[in-house]
Backbone:
């Protein structure tokens, strides 16, 4: 059901949500950018709709809500362990269509890929999704190429209007009745979505792992600085590692936590005995790119990359993932001739 | 020809080696200006000078080859620049009211440079507003970070940007980028403890390399801006030397107050027979002792709690 609502009406609705949910949305962290006097837009809890950043893409994705950067799993001391407290409330997440498509990927990796991940599942069960409409494409977005520019599987949609009011399309029955009592105007609402991006990618139909033999990866040996930013901002990267840490020198008290890992950062492929599989940055780039647009699809039937373009936005060396995808066709020709 | 050289020097002209010709010295606080002023400088050089312009070592412009009698016309032509760069002026159309306190220089700062911890030009302009016009020979320079591209340690007052890095441990992915950057590019103030960086507050120089290196915004900059204030570096014939650290983690307001206090101190203690009324502050401090200087400089200054004042201070340098 569609409504035309004011910020006051939404904020009243938010208050009722907050009994059972934390509300997460892209927020401005003033002064939170790398460079002085720059901001960072990333996910955080909000109380009011005015805190949500609508006019820019978030630097980091929503995934850090569902898949915390660092999460203590349990505490231990000698013979005992105690599970760390889980989230006390569910989550309402405001996200864009590309990210909503990314949520499907997270679900398939954490829930439908062998045994369900307990820690992911417990918050996922209590998740509500609010789709933020996109009335225009941002820099480096290529959602249309990836088929992620439209979404319908939301609990509510929200579009900020030029006059500061909002159009929402609500599918949650309880929220619907709340809005019905509160809001005067009902109308049909279709969340805004883009139908073309400046950036377009073409993933070759004939792409195979043979492309690993192409010379195209070499340039990244020197261009890439293996910082991992592309992984950390990516809404579909889900790798983590484990850390056991001890609070005292007797080594008997401590915690186990899981922490995000990046296939671009040193140490990711280290194995017992001192080996390391992908030492060169070009090899790491190859692994990442082919995971996003080749082998994930072979396993799941659809591409992992959602085309949000955050990896391009953040790369300090101006390496473009989308441009790399567009080199794959020539690279396939190169390796098939050899 | 009857020219009062003392008056023309105060008016930011100079006596040159060519008899009858002067040069006009244009100050550009913070070294950054709207490009439109370049065409005005060009016009003055072509109409009154010899058609050339020198970019000075203090980020100003010097227009040589101007006949002394053209000085009033040049002053009138400078008015737009003086207004546009917001230079304090005693009388409209009369040019610069003083030249003793030199142009306040700055590196490009955070308008452009990723390393800079603040807007160096804006702070330079704020200091200029507070200290100019003044006949006393003060040299002040600002640089965005401890790389010190502006060479502020060669100045009486050197201002280096600092940020106090803040760690959000829950955003740390243990990638080690900050520890590596601090070790290779800075002072090795970070070490990993239980997979996360631990900052040695005494070693940290506030350069922000950890923030720049962090891929996940675990390290961020402090809301407040801090500075390292270095003192009494100088060039010159007798005893050129680098400025030494005076206060670490000092704030903007305190710096301005300290500089203004130093003008009072110099007025009290300058050698009355100093040639041209010009004596490097450092020589005055050598004479009165540092503690007396410090007493004057810190009068009514309320330093932030984290500020560290170095005392006593010793300078080295080459002595002839």
Residues:
């Amino acid at each position: 059901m569609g409504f035309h609502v004011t910020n006051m009406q939404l904020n009243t609705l938010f208050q009722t949500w907050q009994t059972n949910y934390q509300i997460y949305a892209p927020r401005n962290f003033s002064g939170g950018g790398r460079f002085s006097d720059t901001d960072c837009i990333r996910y955080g809890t909000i109380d009011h709709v005015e805190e949500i950043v609508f006019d820019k893409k978030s630097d980091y994705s929503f995934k850090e809500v569902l898949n915390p950067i660092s999460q203590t799993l349990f505490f231990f001391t000698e013979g005992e362990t105690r599970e760390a407290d889980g989230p006390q409330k569910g989550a309402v997440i405001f996200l864009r269509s590309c990210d909503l498509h990314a949520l499907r990927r997270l679900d398939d990796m954490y829930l439908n890929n062998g045994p369900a991940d307990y820690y992911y599942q417990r918050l996922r069960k209590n998740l509500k999704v609010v789709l933020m409409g996109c009335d225009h494409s941002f820099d480096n977005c290529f959602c249309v190429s990836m088929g992620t520019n439209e979404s319908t599987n939301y609990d509510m949609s929200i579009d900020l209007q030029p006059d500061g009011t909002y159009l929402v399309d609500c599918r949650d029955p309880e929220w619907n009745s709340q809005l019905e009592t509160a809001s005067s105007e009902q109308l049909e609402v279709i969340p805004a979505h883009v139908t073309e991006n400046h950036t377009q990618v073409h993933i070759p139909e004939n792409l195979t792992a043979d492309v690993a033999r192409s010379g195209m990866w070499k340039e990244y040996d020197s261009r890439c600085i293996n910082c991992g930013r592309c992984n950390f901002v990516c809404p579909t990267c889900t790798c983590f590692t484990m850390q056991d840490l001890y609070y005292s020198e007797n080594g008997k008290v401590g915690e186990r936590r899981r922490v995000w890992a990046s296939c671009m950062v040193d140490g990711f492929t280290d194995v017992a005995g001192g080996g390391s599989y992908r030492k060169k940055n070009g090899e790491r780039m190859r692994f990442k790119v082919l995971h996003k647009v080749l082998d994930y699809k072979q396993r799941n039937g659809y591409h992992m990359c959602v085309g949000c373009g955050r990896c391009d936005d953040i790369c300090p060396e101006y390496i473009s993932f989308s441009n790399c995808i567009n080199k794959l066709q020539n690279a396939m020709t190169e390796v098939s001739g050899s | 020809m009857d020219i009062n050289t003392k008056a023309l020097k105060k008016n930011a002209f100079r006596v040159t080696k060519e008899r009858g010709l002067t040069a006009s010295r244009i100050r550009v606080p913070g070294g950054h200006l709207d490009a439109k002023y370049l065409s005005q400088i060009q016009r003055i050089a072509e109409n009154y000078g010899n058609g050339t312009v020198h970019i000075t070592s203090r980020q100003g412009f010097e227009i040589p080859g101007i006949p002394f009698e053209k000085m009033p016309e040049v002053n009138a032509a400078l008015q737009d620049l003086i207004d546009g760069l917001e230079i304090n002026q005693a009388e409209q159309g009369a040019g610069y009211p003083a030249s003793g306190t030199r142009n306040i220089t700055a590196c490009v700062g955070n308008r452009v440079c990723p390393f800079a911890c603040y807007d160096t030009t804006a702070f330079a302009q704020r200091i200029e507003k507070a200290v100019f016009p003044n006949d006393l020979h003060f040299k002040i320079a600002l640089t965005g970070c401890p790389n010190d591209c502006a060479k502020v340690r060669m100045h009486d007052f050197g201002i280096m940007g600092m940020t106090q890095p803040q760690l959000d441990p829950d955003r740390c992915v243990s990638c080690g980028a900050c520890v590596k950057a601090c070790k290779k590019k800075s002072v090795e103030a970070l070490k990993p403890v239980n997979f996360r960086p631990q900052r040695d507050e005494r070693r940290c120089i506030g350069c922000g390399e950890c923030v720049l290196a962090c891929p996940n915004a675990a390290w961020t900059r402090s809301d407040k801006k801090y500075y390292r204030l270095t003192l009494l570096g100088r060039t010159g014939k007798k005893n050129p030397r680098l400025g030494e650290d005076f206060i670490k983690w000092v704030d903007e307001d305190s710096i301005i107050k300290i500089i203004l206090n130093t003008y009072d101190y110099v007025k009290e203690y300058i050698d009355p027979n100093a040639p041209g009324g010009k004596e490097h502050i450092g020589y005055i401090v050598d004479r009165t002792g540092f503690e007396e200087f410090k007493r004057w400089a810190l009068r009514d200054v309320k330093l932030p709690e984290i500020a560290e004042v170095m005392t006593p201070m010793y300078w080295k340098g080459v002595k002839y």
